[in-house]
Amino acid sequence: MTRLVWDGLPDAVRRRVAGRIGSEIVHEAPAVGGFSPGMASVLTGADGRSAFVKAVSAEQNSYSPELYRREAALHAGLPRGLPAPTLMWSFDYEDWSVLAFAPVHGAVPPLPWKRAHLLAVLDTVRGLTTPDPDSPLPGVDELFREELTGWRSLAAAEAVAGTHRPTGTPGFVADDPWLRRHLDRLIRLEESWEDAARGHGLLHADLRADNVLLTEAEDRPSAVTGSSEGSVVLVDWAYACRGATVFDLVYLLLGAVEAGGCRPEDVLSAGSGLLRKDEHDAAAVLLAAFTGWFTWLKTLPPVPGLPALRPFQARMAAAGRSCLTASGVIH
């Protein structure tokens, strides 16, 4: 995927960004990873001040500007001392949305995941501060209620399409022996995901390697300090919400299986040290729900401006199926 860079922004947007930073932009360091087609770069002005700036318009992807606006609004409800960059400012101009954060001097974890890095991120997630009861953050069940219905959506599409569906119609249960054999069990698990995920903790809810920064060079980062100067910093909080911590843990581990560095059989293994024993039942439910979600999404048409998204979702679906089978959730 090719991201926008500073020179590709409209002059009017560039002037406004430079004015907020305080001087003419003389250096750009683009970010790596992620799916957004917008600019994501550390911009440094002539006077030495800098900011990590994200900018996107509806021309790149119709949904991305709204996602940026939601991220800006949600930052007001995040607890203080969070291992996350500080939002400095944001603005909209015509169909552009722009966010600026205090720069974090770190790098995304190298892939495949190293166990020390994965454990450090899991520990950071478990240590996130509980949001204030008056915080505007939504519940995870509310935020994802229409999303985590993948197995049910596949079953419904198959029922409508039948075995003579047109080419490209979502739904392929009839062509997949594994799905035909296990779909009823997967639906039962999926139907209980809201109970498994409901809680009062702070969730990132989009926890992938490209949304993690390690701020120390050692292979094993030190314990998180609760600030952006700690060893693990979590970025891109557009889906911040309340819920059970196991939601973030399972999503992260599923991504680690997809990216390499975590074996499918270790996700729910009592001896792997990745999840606690009391988290395993909820984790099995969420693993089934996430796998169904990605299995459904990979059947849908490509998203304009996000060419890497559907292939990623297909890999996540395959990783989830491997985890469900290897862990014995699906026999």
Characterize the structure shown.
It contains ten helices and nine strands. By secondary structure, the chain is of the alpha+beta class. It folds into two domains: 6-101, Phosphorylase Kinase, domain 1 (2-Layer Sandwich), CATH 3.30.200.20; 137-205 and 240-326, no CATH class. The strands form three sheets. It has a five-stranded antiparallel sheet with strand order 1-2-3-5-4. A two-stranded antiparallel ribbon has the order 6-9. Strands 7-8 form a two-stranded antiparallel ribbon. Helix 5 (150-161) crosses helix 9. The longest helix is centred in the last third of the chain and has 18 residues, at 280-297. Mean pLDDT is 90; it is low at 217-230.
Number of domains: 2
Helix count, per DSSP? Answer: 10
Structural class by sheet pairing and helices: alpha+beta
Main sheet: strands, sense, barrel: 5 strands, antiparallel
Query: What is the percent of helical residues?
Result: 25-40%
